[in-house]
Amino acid sequence: QVQLVESGGGSVQAGGSQRLSCAASGRTFSSHCMGWFRQAPGKEREFVAAISRIGASKYYADSVKGRFTISRDNAKNTLYLQMNSLKPEDTAVYYCAAGPLGGSFDYVTPRTEEYNYWGQGTQVTVSS
After folding, report:
1. pLDDT above 90: residue 49
2. Phi-psi region of 15 (alpha: psi -120 to 50; beta: other; left: phi over 0)
3. pLDDT tens by residue, 103-128
4. CA dist., res. 128 & res. 126, Å (int)
5. What distance in Å separates the CA atoms of residue 2 and residue 32, rounded to the nearest whole number?
6. Cα–Cα distances in Å, from 9 out to 53, 66, 110?
């Protein structure tokens, strides 16, 4: 079982930066690929970025590629999302999620249905 708690959300102006963190409890953090998702008002939850168990592989949605960076520190049981050049359309509740337990070290997935554990979300608001 993995419990996830996001932090770092808030309000920022367009063009600015923000760093989200996701603290995980339990002893299996390093055994899960991890992902960030977001949900804007009136829209479905969408994939943002994912990272493999040891960080060797990363995968980004086209909408954030080149602006967002996902990383993890397995010694601290923490997942990060560095967001640069933020746009108003990045406004959403951001969720971290833990994917399948075990598997290959370079496995990543953007598929929402493969993530079993979710945080409560943190709001990011980007004003123009």
Report:
1. yes
2. left
3. 788 899 999 999 999 999 999 999 99
4. 7
5. 9
6. 24, 20, 22
